[in-house]
Design brief:
The chain folds into four domains: about 120 residues, no CATH class; about 110 residues, Beta-Lactamase (2-Layer Sandwich), CATH 3.30.450; about 55 residues, no CATH class; about 150 residues, Heat Shock Protein 90 (2-Layer Sandwich). The chain is rod-shaped and about 150 Å long. The C terminus is likely disordered. The chain is built from 14 helices and twelve strands. The strands form three sheets. Strands 2-1-5-4-3 form a five-stranded antiparallel β-sheet, with helices on both faces. Helix 1 packs parallel to helix 3, helix 2 packs antiparallel against helix 3 and helix 4 packs parallel to helix 7. A hairpin with a 5-residue loop joins strand 11 and strand 12.
Length: about 500
């Protein structure tokens, strides 16, 4: 596997260096005690023993045993008579030498064991802290489709693993993290996710474990550079299982909420459309019934009823057109038939189209002089303005005035429709341009489908412009359209 041979090579080099240092330390003590400082055999033995304990504490049992054997040989050769040979003249020295060897090895084992226990305790503490950090990170992770990838990244960062691979059996995706690659063990990942097996490569320091929930494997996790205990590895896989289940639960809840909102939206839309269609249909039915009954004999009255039928039929046609335009705008299939027009011409056409509904209302028009021509789709932009004016008519009292104005500004050519209605609460201002959205206090009080402002927004955006509202509670509302003015338009 990539990265395995360098690790083994470094380990062997490190052990070789340690053993060389052990022999150097033993040789140094021997030289000092035999050449520089004349001390008795007991002091020399204690010097060797202290060195062995330090080596055992610093490096481990293997180095300590090598140091013990080297110390015994040096002690025998240089300090026990006859000096300069490995033979021992006095039998008591045999006992002393064996006692020294046993003591040094035993002390080395105890020191190494204590060091190992301390290291294990520190590792357990570190594992606990890392697992806690991972659990907090999982709790703060948004439950979406990118969550498994985020979890893999968090595992690699928190545990400092060079490579992590997380396999989600539900989606079949493998999410990788870390600077190294673990593609060579994809088969083991799939097997662990299906069979629930545990795979461990001691040489490559790679572990693959299954992720279980309720006793059933739902995925698998592969990590490289693992020094985790079995308990920590099990806790890690349990945390990942909880995280994956959290993602799935959130997705199920989101689908359920979307389905619920869809049904509620359909019901609201059908109710609103039925209400909008009912008004012109009622007028058409009443006028047609009067004409068919034969009770209306005067030509003037017949003409008036025929006009009602014609106007209300036009209104029905506009409702259907608006719904079709909304669908086309959402699907991106709308085509802008741009041509050069004056703003005054566009606003006049809108006012003429809405003569029936604005009759009896005080309407102020303020159009600045010398406005540049704009290159727009006249029908669509008129539709957007008409929706703003229709919205102002609905939400303001019949006695209050309306104002429509046009002027140039920093954002282009500005068209504004103002009313003196109740205003729009700040919490609703960011949502009123959403499709089918209507304020919580307007459903039963004001008829409508909630499509008008959404259509206006899409039309203005298709022109590269912007639309927004400025309002304060009780102070009315001012809807603003900004249409960009190009250099070509400015010089026209």
């Amino acid at each position: 596997m990539p990265g395995v041979l360098p690790v083994l090579r470094w380990r062997s080099v490190r052990v070789t260096l340690h053993l060389a240092a052990v022999l150097a330390i033993t040789a140094g003590i021997t030289f000092v005690c035999s050449r520089l400082i004349r001390v008795n055999a007991t002091t020399i033995g204690f010097a060797y023993l202290v060195a062995i304990l330090v080596i055992a504490t610093a490096w481990g049992l293997l180095e300590a045993i090598v140091a013990s054997v080297a110390a015994v040989l040096c002690f025998n050769y240089f300090f026990l008579p006859p000096v300069g040979t490995f033979t021992i003249a006095d039998p008591q020295n045999w006992v002393a030498l064996l006692a020294f060897l046993v003591t040094s090895i035993t002390a080395s084992q105890l020191s190494a064991h204590a060091k190992q226990r301390t290291r294990e305790a520190l590792d357990r503490q570190q594992d606990t802290e890392r697992l806690y950090a991972l659990s907090r990170a999982i709790l703060l992770t948004e439950a979406n489709r990118t969550a498994p990838k985020q979890i893999a990244n968090q595992i690699a960062q928190i545990f400092d693993f060079p490579a992590v691979s997380l396999y989600d059996r539900d989606t079949g995706d493998i999410h990788r993290a870390g600077p190294e690659d673990l593609r060579a063990i994809d088969d083991e990942l799939h097997e662990a996710a299906v069979q629930g097996t545990l795979f461990h490569d001691e040489v490559g320091q790679t572990t693959v474990t299954s992720i279980r929930l309720g006793g059933q494997p739902i995925g698998s996790l592969a990590i490289r550079g693992s020094s985790l205990s079995d308990g920590a590895l099990q806790a890690l896989s349990n945390l990942v299982a909880i995280a994956l289940e959290k993602v799935r639960g959130q997705e199920v809840a989101s689908r359920a909420e979307a389905a619920r909102q869809s049904e509620e939206l359909k019901s609201t839309l059908l109710d609103a459309i039925a209400h909008e269609f009912k008004t012109p249909l009622t007028s058409i039915k009443a006028a047609a019934s009067a004409l068919l009954s034969g009770t209306v004999s005067k030509t003037e009255e017949q003409r008036e009823l025929t006009t009602v039928v014609n106007e209300e039929a036009d209104r029905l046609g506009r409702l259907v057109t608006e719904a079709i335009q909304m669908a086309r705008l959402e699907a991106g299939k709308i085509q802008l038939n741009r041509s050069m027009h004056s703003v005054e011409e566009l606003i006049s056409a809108v006012l003429q189209q809405m003569t029936a509904v604005t009759e009896g209302r005080r309407l102020e028009v303020g159009i600045a002089s010398d406005l540049p021509m704009v290159e727009v789709d006249p029908e669509l932009l008129q539709l957007a303005i008409r929706h703003l004016l229709d919205n102002a008519l609905k939400y303001s009292s019949p006695e209050s005035p309306l104002r429509i104005s046009a002027a140039t500004g920093e954002r282009g050519l500005m068209i504004k429709v103002s009313d003196k209605g109740p205003g729009i609460p700040e919490r609703d201002q960011s949502r009123i341009f959403e499709k089918f959205y209507r304020g919580p206090n307007t459903h039963s009080r004001v008829p409508g489908t909630g499509m008008g402002l959404a259509i206006a927004r899409e039309i203005v955006r298709a022109h590269g412009g912007d639309i927004w509202v400025e309002s304060s509670a009780g102070q009315g509302a001012e809807f603003c359209i900004a249409v960009p003015v190009t250099a070509r338009e400015e010089t026209a």
